[in-house]
Write a structure and sequence with these properties.
about 375 residues; alpha/beta; Rossmann fold; 6-phosphogluconate dehydrogenase C-terminal fold; VC0802-like; 4-stranded antiparallel beta sheet; 12 strands; about 20% strand; globular
Length: about 375
C-alpha cells in the first residue's frame, strides 16, 4: 500500500514557510475511529491517516472520504504522527502498543486508545519504552445502535463524556495537547485514575450487559417448553434487554479484561437479589415498595440529555388505521419536516384493528419533534 503514501513521507520537506500539519493516525476506522476522524477531517492544519490490516477496509475508508490517507502498513500510518488513536478491540490493544513501541515514533507523539477498559492497557504501556512517545488512556463514552465506518458521524461525541486516564508520569504538556485536540469532538473531558474508571464503567455498563444476557438466556430456556414466553416477551422486555444483542466477540474481550472488577460487582449483585428474595419470602410489601422508591429517587437524578456508553432509546408507538399508504404518508410527513427517522417497524395490523407502528430515532430532539407533529396531525402517539 505504499502507493497510498506517494509524496506523503516527503510533505515535511515541502517549503519552509507553511506550518506543518498536525498528523493524526487512527488504527481501526470503524464507528468510533471513523467518528473521531470526521471531527478533524477537512479542518485546516490537520491530516488524518487511517489504518487497517484489511485492504478492502482501506479502500472503503478512502471511498467514503473519512480520512485523508489510508494504508495497511502500521509503520506508514504511524510515521511522523503527532497523535495515534488505537480504535481496535480491547483484546488487541496491547498487541498494537507492542508493535508501535518497536517503531521510531515521532518524539512527543501522544498515543491513546478508546477502549472500554483502561487499567490493563495503561499498565502495559507504562512497562514499555515508547521511544519518546507518551501513552494516555482514553475512553469516549458514546455509542450507536449501528456499527462500522458507515455509521460514523462527526457529532457522535457531542455532549458525551470523554474520559482520559493520565498517570503521575504523564507530562502535563502532552495531556494538554490531547485535551486541546479533543475539543473538536465537543465532548466533556473528564480525567480520572484508570482503576477507578474500570470500577465505574464496570458497574454502569459491563454489569448491565451481563444481566441483560443472563435474563434473555433465562427466558429463552423457559421458552423451550412453552413458546408463549417468546410471544409475550415483546415491548418493554425487548427494550430493556436490547443490549443483550451486542457484539459477542467485543464483549467477550471487554468482560474478560475487566474480570476482577466484574467478579466483585457480581457478588454485590447476588447480595442485592438475595435481599429482594428475602423480602418476597417474608411477604414484606412495604420493603419491596421501598426498593422501588429508592431506585426511582436515584434514577430521577440521572442526566437525561448526556450521551453514554449504552446508547439511548428514542422510540414512540403510533396507532395507525389499516389502510393503504398510511405508512408512507407518516414517513413522508416526518421527512418533510426534516425529522431523521432511523427505523420503523409494523408491530400489528389487522382488519378493523388499528395497527401499531414503532418509530425509532437517533436523537432525542427528533423524537420530541416527531411526537408533536404526529399528535398535531391527529395520530395517537404513546411511549
Amino acid at each position: 500500500m505504499a502507493g497510498d503514501f506517494d509524496g506523503f513521507a516527503n510533505k515535511k520537506n515541502e517549503g519552509t514557510s507553511a506550518k506543518p500539519k498536525t498528523r493524526i493516525a487512527i488504527f481501526g476506522v470503524g464507528l468510533i475511529g471513523g467518528s473521531l476522524a470526521l471531527c478533524w477531517k477537512g479542518k485546516p492544519g490537520y491530516e488524518v491517516v487511517g489504518h487497517s490490516v484489511n485492504p478492502a477496509s482501506v479502500e472503503k475508508y478512502k471511498a467514503l472520504g473519512v480520512v485523508d490517507v489510508a494504508t495497511t502498513s502500521i509503520a506508514e500510518a504511524a510515521m511522523d504522527a503527532d497523535f495515534i488513536f488505537l480504535c481496535v478491540p480491547v483484546g488487541k490493544l496491547n498487541d498494537y502498543v507492542d508493535e508501535l513501541a518497536r517503531l521510531p515514533l515521532k518524539p512527543g507523539c501522544v498515543l491513546t486508545d478508546v477502549g472500554s477498559t483502561k487499567a490493563s492497557v495503561v499498565a502495559h504501556a507504562q512497562r514499555l519504552e515508547l521511544n519518546g512517545a507518551v501513552f494516555i488512556g482514553g475512553h469516549p463514552m458514546a455509542g450507536s445502535e449501528r456499527s462500522g465506518v458507515e455509521a460514523a458521524t462527526a457529532d457522535l461525541f457531542e455532549n458525551a463524556y470523554y474520559v482520559l486516564t493520565p498517570t503521575d508520569r504523564t507530562p502535563p504538556e502532552a495531556l494538554n495537547r490531547l485535551e486541546e485536540l479533543l475539543r473538536w469532538t465537543r465532548a466533556k473531558i473528564v480525567k480520572t485514575d484508570s482503576a477507578l474508571h474500570d470500577e465505574i464503567v464496570g458497574a454502569i455498563s459491563h454489569l448491565p450487559h451481563i444481566i441483560a444476557v443472563a435474563l434473555v438466556n433465562q427466558i429463552a430456556a423457559y421458552n423451550e417448553t412453552n413458546d408463549l414466553y417468546r410471544s409475550l416477551a415483546a415491548g418493554g422486555f425487548r427494550d430493556i434487554t436490547r443490549i443483550a444483542s451486542s457484539d459477542p466477540t467485543i464483549w467477550r474481550d471487554i468482560l474478560l479484561n475487566n474480570r476482577d472488577v466484574l467478579l466483585r460487582l457480581l457478588q454485590d449483585w447476588r447480595k442485592s437479589m438475595d435481599r429482594f428474595a428475602a423480602l418476597l419470602e417474608a411477604g414484606d410489601g412495604e420493603g419491596v415498595a421501598e426498593q422501588f422508591r429508592l431506585a426511582g429517587r436515584f434514577r430521577s437524578q440521572l442526566p437525561e440529555r448526556r450521551k453514554g456508553m449504552i446508547s439511548s432509546l428514542y422510540e414512540c408507538y403510533v396507532n395507525v388505521p389499516d389502510q393503504p399508504g398510511i405508512i408512507g404518508k407518516i414517513a413522508t410527513e416526518l421527512g418533510q419536516e426534516k425529522i431523521n427517522l432511523s427505523n420503523l417497524h409494523i408491530i400489528e395490523s389487522r382488519e378493523d384493528v388499528p395497527g401499531v407502528l414503532r418509530l425509532s430515532f437517533r436523537q432525542g430532539n427528533d423524537l420530541e419533534r416527531a411526537v408533536a407533529l404526529l399528535q398535531a396531525l391527529g395520530y395517537e402517539v404513546f411511549f
